[in-house]
Amino acid sequence: MGEEKVLIVVPAFNEQNNILKVIGDIRESIPDFDILVVNDCSLDGTSANARKADGVKVVDLPYNLGIGGAVQTGFKYAYANQYDYMVQIDGDGQHIPREVDKLLDAMSRSGCDMVIGSRFLDIQSYRTTWTRRLGIKVFYLLFRLLIQTKVTDSTSGFRIYNKKSIALLCRHYPDDYPEPDAIILLKKHGLTISEVGVEMREREHGSSSITPIKSPYYMAKVILSIFFSYTRTRW
């Protein structure tokens, strides 16, 4: 994207076994972009390992804020340092850095304020659990109903934001379920959203906090959160 500044934000919690590989993949695929690792008060060696990588900036949060607080820290950093674009790549290794080019191209072509990397748009990617796929389908129908927008992978954290969305989300960003709620927030402020198909992979180390047993509970809470965000009058 020419001379425009791009920041890669990697939120990470207890990812000591993944973080250096994630950084290495970013360096190999998109070496010209700056990297910020937001260590969400990990209890392991995530911060120490991230600091082994030359040129990577690391922010250590004093308390565990969750994914929402960690990503908003990235927005604040991107806004303060006048980045043109911010890309979120999770620290668990599921997002493939070479796919960032697809996000960049989609944003350039569409002119949208946020582009989501979707596992479900003509891409052969790893399959999530059936419970999670069911939840994503329910969220898809909710977004069609509430904001008349098709979002096939609303829980994907693999996203790119432009200056307008960075400026908004550095001030207001959901805490508990930021990926679906951020879609509502952006649409309510008149910003535009699109998706592009991307490949993702399963994490190599650790496990997701959303287990099959917890999935129905997670889905119910996200649905309530989406309705709350939709009906909220002020942010």
How does this model look, in words?
The protein has helices at residues 19-29, 46-50, 66-80, 100-110, 130-147, 163-169, 178-188, 215-231, and strands at 6-12, 34-39, 57-60, 85-88, 114-118, 159-161, 193-197. Helices cover 40% and strands 14% of the residues. Helix 3 crosses helix 6 (163-169), helix 5 runs parallel beside helix 8 and helix 7 (178-188) runs parallel beside helix 8 (215-231). Strand 1 (6-12), helix 1 (19-29) and strand 2 (34-39) form a beta-alpha-beta unit. Strands 3-2-1-4-6-5-7 form a seven-stranded mixed β-sheet, with helices on both faces. It comes from Paenibacillus allorhizosphaerae. Keywords: Glycosyltransferase, Transferase. Pfam families: Glycos_transf_2. Residues 8-166 form the Glycosyltransferase 2-like domain.
Supply the helix-strand structural class.
alpha/beta
Q: What average pLDDT do the residues reach?
A: 90
Query: Could you tell me the strand content as a percent range?
Result: 5-15%
Gyration radius, rounded: 17 Å
The percent range for helix content is 40-55%
Number of helices: 8
Largest sheet: 7 strands, mixed
Instruction: Characterize the overall form.
Output: globular
Q: What series of H and E elements makes up the topology?
A: EHEHEHEHEHEHHEH
**What is the number of strand segments?**
7
Outline the secondary-structure elements.
Elements: E1 6-12, H1 19-29, E2 34-39, H2 46-50, E3 57-60, H3 66-80, E4 85-88, H4 100-110, E5 114-118, H5 130-147, E6 159-161, H6 163-169, H7 178-188, E7 193-197, H8 215-231
Parallel strand pairs: 1-2, 1-4, 2-3, 5-7
Antiparallel strand pairs: 4-6, 5-6
Helix pairs in contact: 3-6, 5-8, 7-8
